[in-house]
Design brief:
Layout lengths: L1 E6 L2 E6 L19 E6 L2 E3 L7 H8 L6 E3 L5 H4 L2 H8 L2 E3 L1
Parallel strand pairs: 4-5, 5-6
Antiparallel strand pairs: 1-2, 2-3, 3-4
């Protein structure tokens, strides 16, 4: 699931995996934790989780994405790196 919000020139992409409801404490459709990426003037800050990577890349279509920076190397911050490089041919820095 991706929620997109605009804050002036900053676009926030809030991402999370929806629960399947397989455990009693996980109601179906509830997001267990959120992570976010931000697009500012062509600079993408973080790339989200692997399980939202395809949806995230689709949400960036038609937007000017020139470069990405990962704030650190955790899976919820670098998950779409490979797909972004394939789709947009951008450099990704850490």
């Amino acid at each position: 699931m991706i929620q997109i919000s605009q804050f002036g020139e900053i676009t926030q992409f809030k991402m999370g995996r929806e629960s399947l409801g397989q455990a009693p404490w996980e109601p179906p459709g509830q997001v267990l934790y959120w992570t976010a990426a931000y697009l500012v003037d062509g600079l993408l800050i973080d790339t989200g989780c692997p399980h939202t990577a395809e949806e995230f890349v689709r949400s960036l279509e038609g937007r000017a994405v020139k470069l990405a920076v990962n704030t650190h190397y955790h899976e919820d911050h670098v998950g779409a790196n490979y797909l972004l490089q394939q789709k947009f041919g951008i450099r990704i820095l850490v």
